[in-house]
Amino acid sequence: MGSLNSNPAAGRAEKIRIASWAHRQNTAFVSEDPPRKTRQLVLVGGGHSHVAVLRAFGMSPLPEARIVLISNHWDTPYSGMLPALIAGHYSRDEIHVDLHRLCRYAGADFCRDRMIGLDLKARTVQLANRPPVHFDILSINTGSTPKLDDVPGAAEHALPVKPIDNLLAGLEALEKRIAAHGTTPFRIVTVGGGAGGVELTLSLHHRFLQLIQQGKLKATPPEFEIITATPGLLASHNAGVRRRLNKALARRGVKVRLNARVRAVTRGEAHCENGGGGGGG
Q1: Beta carbons of 146 and 160 less than 8 angstroms apart
Q2: Of the four, 52, 158, 216, 261, which is 20 to 30 A from 134 by CA?
Q3: Both ends of the chain: CA-CA distance in Å?
């Protein structure tokens, strides 16, 4: 029997036949990995955690994951920068994250709507203006809002910190009220003696003082007071921080009312359960 090399043409044909057989065997016994099942991750709300999740997916995409962000806002604020916004150091846009743009970066779908319910059995999110959205994995991070209904009169006579757009509109209205108050100092009361309440008070103090000094607000500088139910400000901080803070408030003429829980709010007055009250504009 001759070798493959004895007849070059026959040798080439034999090699082709063997290669074809090997290819068929390989195809028969070595299959490709099955396609991965796509799972849908639905993020409800544009809070800080979801911003971090979308950023992570943008940096390291997962082909088997489809992401949907549901939010009734085009952007979301970074609350850590809120005091600086109030003080006038930053603009609104500078402290907000563009959710639509972030979704494009992450390869996620953006659904501008509001969640009104959940169907856990069907695994769907019920929306106000769109058909339900299916989820395999669901995360809710809508942020917190002050519970004004817990204090009678607060919804009508107090200005909540959130939503921020409402706060900014409220501050513009407040400036007009301060300007119309004449030479009598306008009084502003902050309820809450934690870090947020103290930062808010100092930011408002800086804002209105700067506006007055720059001639943008024709008014007497407002007076400020902090009301807290705790026996001291910044109860979770150490003594050194509290001392420096109290000195900073004293230099600015900010009054502090301790051990006073606000039970009701009327126009110009915050009523405390200990019988005292803090005046407001």
Answers
A1: yes
A2: 52
A3: 112
pLDDT at residue 10, as a whole number: 57
Instruction: For residues 19 and 13, give the distance between their C-alpha atoms in angstroms, rounded to a whole number.
Output: 10
For the entire predicted model, the pTM comes to: 0.75
At 166, the amino acid letter reads N
Which residue in 123, 122, 161 sits closest to 143, CA to CA?
A: 161
DSSP string, 166-199: HHHHHHHHHHHHHHTTTTSPPEEEEE--SHHHHH
**CA-to-CA distance for 257 and 276, rounded, in angstroms?**
9
Q: Which pair of structure tokens corresponds to residue 276?
A: 């005292």
Task: Report the candidate in 67, 86, 82 with the shortest Cα–Cα distance to residue 133.
Answer: 67
Structure tokens given for 234:
């910044």
Bridge partners, 172 (sequence order): none
Across the chain, mean pLDDT equals: 86
pLDDT tens digits along 213-241? 999 999 999 999 999 999 999 988 999 99
Helix/strand/coil for 5: helix
- Picking from 24-38, 54-68, 175-189, which range would have the lowest pLDDT averaged per residue? 24-38
193 closest CA partner among 268, 258, 145, 279: 258
H/E element, 250: helix 239-251
Positive or negative, the Cα torsion across 110, 114, 119, 122? negative
